Amino acid sequence: MSAHQLPLSIVAAEKRETRTQFAALPFRLVDGSVQVLLITSRRSKRWILPKGWPEAGLTPAECAAKEAWEEAGALGAAYELCLGVYAFEKERDEARDVPVLALVYPLKVQQLKRSYPEVASRRRKWVPLKKAAKMVEAQGLGRILKTFDPRVLKGRTA
User: Fold this and answer.
1) Which stretches of the chain score pLDDT less than 50?
2) Which of 33, 49, 70, 75 could disulfide-link 23, Cβ–Cβ 3.0 to 4.6 Å?
3) Strands of 81-139, DSSP E
């Protein structure tokens, strides 16, 4: 297990409790301004960040980067720096939604592919940070987007 990996083990009986996901904040710089790549959720078509469940053998940032590829076609450098945590309710087929805490990791996008695993079920859009903060439903995510400054990544390796 690497220094960045966390032991993750959830027994079946506890899966109705709060869960954790790792989200990518895919970004790029255009003329000195930061833009974020938002995607739509599959069911409600709300604007969100790519995110997914923890996976054995992957660090949180690696999980986030994997989701950015699968859900948005974004490839790039993921940083092992959590920018913040926000809460939301994950819609499930079951009787009740599941509360989730999402930990957000920056991903500097180097390539955006036209073909990727979830291209048929999602839209994606580059937007300035402040606009992105207004487009997302989760208030905590909006605060993270409003305050993101890529200069915090200076000197850090992806």
Assistant:
1) 1-3, 5-10
2) 49
3) 84-90, 98-112, 124-128
